[in-house]
Design goal:
Length: 421
């Protein structure tokens, strides 16, 4: 929201400098504090059942797991700064635009530097701008953003599992397991936007699911706001937001025979898009996905589905998924947790579980769709290169949601946690 407010101010002719950063931060923080004060009386979580005391051995195990998690995250901070701009897109796609905005004091400067012009939202570049104008980017300090997003992602997962009744040490171990998946850990140390995007998407999804099924208006507003930020982070955020919100509303309508309140769910995204989309719609239509979609529709209407490209995509995914140096034991662990989760689910099927299952499938399938439609613009060799270069990071949201769902399914729903939202 801070970077979006800076963007709006820049479009109104306000120069982006240190004073602007300070005043914008104070204004956004004041609004957030005021809203928290106004809504403070509303309960966030049902705490009617006390959490049972845990044995000393279990508390010790939790402490050890927290320490291990802290060590992994701390190493990520050192590697993120040390690797700096070792990855091409980190420099050319994101940081360079942030520096350009800082130098010029205008968001239009991002269109002249780096890749993609103004097709990609400026959330992450303007976070880099903030570091550039305040600290000078000597280290560069903005690289600490990515392990911080990893920390937020893991903590959100752990707290969600605990709130769902999961055993604490298993929840912490689950967070440690996911962070140490090679692809995930690598993206916590490079300046690509995929991990921050995954963090925002997962947080928005979890918040919205809990808000809708607990009839908590504050959480629905917050979940809707997260989806607005998702669209402000990557172009495909529009597709993810529309798909997830539509899926959750459909599941709620089928299970509850009514539509959830749409204003808090949809309005924040519409407000953010109403400013950003007119600014970048021409540039978005010029990037790969923007040009591939109409071509794919035209080709499929003519009966050309490129099924061989789709089969290549599926087989490549499984080959890379079983590569321990790439995805670790993600596929194997997911299969084991799925079997355990299905057995547990049979004992207690809840509408919230069904909603999470449905939305997880939706999120996991979107990268397959986005990669597939680009096949209509590419040769066989080019498509193979795209799969090698892009599919792993594109699947990060799906992998995070699958892990979140599977560990939630094995939680003991009779336990109620004291961990606040």
């Amino acid at each position: 929201i801070f970077t979006w407010a800076l963007f709006v101010g820049s479009r109104l002719g306000i120069l982006i400098n240190q004073l602007t950063l300070l005043l914008t931060f104070v204004a956004v923080a004041a609004i957030a504090i005021a809203l928290q004060w106004v809504l403070r009386h509303k309960p966030v979580l049902d705490r009617s059942l006390p959490l049972q005391d845990r044995p000393a051995t279990e508390r010790s195990l939790e402490l050890v797991l927290w320490l291990l998690l802290g060590i992994v995250l701390l190493s990520g901070f050192f590697l993120a700064i040390g690797r700096s701009y070792a990855a091409h897109d980190a420099a050319a796609g994101w940081a360079l635009k942030g520096y350009a905005i800082g130098y010029a004091g205008d968001v239009l400067a991002a269109g002249d530097k780096g890749m993609w012009g103004l097709a990609y939202p400026l959330n992450l570049p303007m976070q880099v701008t903030t570091f550039f104008l305040t600290t000078g980017e000597i280290l560069p300090e903005s690289k600490m953003l990515y392990p911080l997003y990893a920390l937020a992602l893991i903590l959100n997962c752990i707290l969600f599992w605990i709130r769902g009744g999961g055993v604490r040490w298993i929840s912490i171990a689950g967070g440690l397991y996911f962070l140490t998946i090679p692809v995930v850990y690598n993206h916590s140390t490079i300046g690509y936007v995929n991990l921050p995007f995954t963090c925002l998407l997962l947080t928005g999804t979890v918040t919205l699911v809990e808000g809708i099924w607990q009839s908590d208006g504050r959480m629905m507003w917050l979940g809707g706001l997260f989806f607005g930020i998702v669209t402000w982070t990557r172009p495909e955020g529009m597709l993810y937001s529309a798909a997830v919100i539509s899926t959750l509303c459909l599941v709620y309508w089928i299970s509850e025979h009514k539509i959830p309140p749409l204003v808090p769910i949809v309005l924040p995204t519409l407000v953010i898009l109403s400013i950003w989309l007119p600014f970048s719609r021409t540039a978005i239509s010029e990037i790969n996905v923007g040009t591939a979609f109409p071509t794919a529709v035209r080709e499929m209407m003519n009966g050309n589905f490129k099924s061989n490209f789709l089969w290549l995509e599926i087989t490549k995914f499984f080959r890379r998924a079983i590569d321990i140096s790439n995805w670790g034991l993600f596929l194997q662990v997911s299969a084991i947790l799925f079997v355990i989760g299905i057995y547990t689910w049979r004992k207690l099927i809840t509408r919230k579980k069904i909603a999470l299952l449905t939305v997880t499938i939706t999120i996991a399938l979107i990268p397959f769709f986005l990669i597939y439609i680009q096949s209509f613009l590419l040769s066989w060799d080019e498509f193979e290169a795209l799969l090698l270069h892009s599919f792993d990071r594109a699947f990060l949201p799906g992998a995070a949601m699958i892990s979140l769902l599977l560990l939630y399914l094995i939680g003991d729903q009779d336990r109620v946690s004291d961990v606040p939202t």
